[in-house]
């Protein structure tokens, strides 16, 4: 279980975006996260992704409190959680090839992994892997970002509006890739989306974060 308990977090002192939020993400299921624009869904995604340190409250992974956020996160806890954002372009180094992008977490942690297998899982050809971000479409780049998020075989995957920029067929393809992780590897997925239809058929249940930052 990836759990947030009593999380208070924000960007400006005295103005919490999340004010005592809790959420439990089990393995082997897709849980949806919905709520009005600006209510703090992406902030909660970044807290759960160990990229944004809450002011108070706790995040734990399989019962163990996280040891730190961002660069202070222990390697094993970093590897437990993958995250994919809405916009792939700002999320990648434009000088890298897609192969380098997918391999980033492997290089950073000194882990061995098969980039070609990851690419295959997300539907990227070897030829596309040799290209740079400006030479591929948003959908192809998002596939690379998903492969990168899966590189360390995380037990939990956070998809923050992962398909919001994509056409229906790429959306369906990426949802299928994620579903395969859930069913074959037992990954727990938090799917954040404004698309109620998508969440209705994708998630086992949908958690709602309301605009007043009340507990989930
Ligand atoms: N880096 C930041 N610096 C300052 N304020 C921020 C930052 N990121 C988000 N916020 C503010 O925090 C609040 C919550 O933003 P967040 O992106 O978490 O909401 P959201 O529910 O994901 O919104 P949306 O559905 O529109 O993506 C908003 O008021 C936003 O302006």
TrEMBL record:
Any one GO BP annotation for this protein: transmembrane transport
SUPFAM superfamilies noted in UniProt: P-loop containing nucleoside triphosphate hydrolases
Record key words, sorted: ATP-binding, Nucleotide-binding, Transport
Domain ABC transporter residues, every copy: 2-216
Database matches in Pfam families: ABC_tran
GO molecular function, one term: ATP binding
Statement: the UniProt record of this protein carries the keyword Signal: no
Database matches in PANTHER family: D,D-DIPEPTIDE TRANSPORT ATP-BINDING PROTEIN DDPF-RELATED (PTHR43776:SF7), TRANSPORT ATP-BINDING PROTEIN (PTHR43776)
UniProt similarity note: Belongs to the ABC transporter superfamily.
Protein name: ATP-binding cassette domain-containing protein
């Amino acid at each position: 279980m990836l759990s947030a308990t009593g999380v208070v977090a924000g960007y400006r002192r005295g103005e919490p975006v999340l004010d005592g939020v809790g959420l439990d993400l089990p393995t082997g299921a897709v849980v949806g996260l919905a709520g009005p624009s600006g209510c703090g869904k992406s902030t909660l995604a970044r807290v759960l992704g160990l990229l944004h340190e809450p002011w108070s409250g706790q995040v734990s992974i399989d019962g163990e409190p996280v040891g730190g956020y961002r660069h202070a996160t222990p390697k094993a806890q970093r590897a437990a959680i993958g995250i994919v954002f809405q916009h792939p372009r700002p999320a990648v180094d434009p000088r890298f090839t897609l192969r380098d992008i997918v391999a980033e977490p492997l290089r950073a942690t000194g882990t061995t992994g098969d980039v070609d297998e990851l690419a295959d899982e997300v539907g990227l050809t070897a030829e596309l892997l040799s290209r740079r971000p400006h030479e591929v479409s948003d959908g192809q780049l998002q596939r690379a970002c998903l492969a990168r998020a899966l590189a360390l075989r995380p037990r939990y995957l956070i998809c923050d509006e992962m398909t919001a920029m994509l056409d229906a067929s790429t959306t369906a393809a990426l949802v299928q890739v994620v579903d395969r992780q859930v069913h074959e590897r037992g990954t727990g997925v938090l799917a954040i989306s404004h698309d109620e239809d998508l969440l209705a058929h994708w998630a086992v249940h949908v958690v709602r974060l309301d605009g007043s930052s009340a507990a989930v």
